[in-house]
Amino acid sequence: MTNKIQQKLTIISYNNQYNFSLLSITIVNKEKKLGVSDLETEILAQTHPGAQVETPKKLLAKTGNKDWLLLVLVQAFAFVLQFVLGLLIGLCYALQHKKPDMLSLQNTLSNPAITMLPTFAAELITFMIARKLLKQKIGDHFRKPVVSSKFLSAGCIVALGASCLGSLLVSVLQMLLSPTGFHFNMPVLLTTSDSNLIILGILNVCVFAPILEELLFRGFLLKSLLPYGSAFAIISSAVLFGVMHGNLMQAIPTTLLGLVLAYIRVRANSIIPTIFIHSANNILFVVFTLLPQSDTTEIISAVLFIVLIAAATVLFIINRKKIWLAKGHSEAEEMPAKKKAAAFYFQSVCFYVLAALFIFNTISLSIAKG
User: Fold this and answer.
1) Average model confidence (pLDDT) for the chain?
2) Residues in domain CAAX prenyl protease 2/Lysostaphin resistance protein A-like (predicted)?
3) Of the four listed, 139, 303, 331, 346, which is most buried by Cβ atoms within 10 Å?
């Protein structure tokens, strides 16, 4: 191998430490990850006949398999933990009551404040697996943000506005589909009068969810996709975030929120600000949930939604020229968007499993109300 090629490989290997490389090559008994061009791939194949070369498209497909698998694991672990928790609560209830009230027990087991616990436990288990599977360190996602407080303040308003816009789109979609008999039955949160369960539900939604979900989606999953371009990573991580919520009604606002949070995370190089913004969004949702239902509260909610959407729109228009993402020139980043989508989404069995569950849950919620 010439000195020129050796020099290129040294530079590429150095770039790999910063997740810019995308080609896996095994030479003799040494394994390295090198982001090489087509020409360099051909030279390496000729100079090292035993080398195993994987194109960026194949590596993206592998990344997609891992990312979608992690979402399946969240669902699977949540299902198992929910079953175990139900057995434990049912057993405790039976021991405390000689004549258990089955309706009361059913209401307790179906309360979102309780059902959320297995989901968060499942996310905790899953991101511990993700740490090993994606070979990432948790501390790497909690760095000091490299953006100004002005940027984060504007980002928070845009994120809240995006979430409100998503909720508005769901309402509009429901109005358009209602004549056909299709109704959206949004999952209800904090439907209990038990103060302990309300506190637990608030902690789940406003504290645990932002930390765990940001670490998993804007942390592990987004970082695994950054070598393929920031824009692709932002969009795909937002799609993953929306799909994880399991139905169309929740996926629309969470996907829009996920887009803004992912952009902020990429610019800030940290999930610390996105955790606080995510928490602020959930706090706003909880406040509206706990307010007594009346014409006054509905008017206040509508006005606040409109103000946030308008403010987010104005900020976006004013700062649209300042919106930028670092662009690389690697073969992976310059891969056509259609090829990226085909490799990441449509070559993963887990994607089809989650898509089927997503459609089933959306239809089930519609039937439940209809």
Assistant:
1) 81
2) 198-283
3) 331
Rounded Cα distance between 33 and 24, Å, is 5
- Burial tier of 90 (Cβ tally within 10 Å: 0-12, 13-18, 19+): middle
Count other Cβ atoms within 10 Å, centred on residue 61: 19
**Is-contact 266 325, C-beta < 8 A?**
yes
* pLDDT tens-place string over residues 255-301: 999 999 999 999 999 999 999 999 999 999 888 888 787 888 888 88
Amino acid at the residue 229 = G
Q: Which residues of 270-289 are buried (b: 16+ CB within 10 A; e: fewer)?
A: bbbbbbebbbbbbebbbeee
- Residues in the chain, how many? 370
Q: Give the pLDDT of residue 109.
A: 65
> Looking at residue 263, what is its pLDDT?
97
Nearest alpha-carbon partner for 257 in 309, 186, 298:
309
Task: Tell if the pTM clears 0.70, that is, is over it.
Answer: yes
Identify any residues that bridge with 24 across adjacent strands, giving them in sequence order.
33, 54
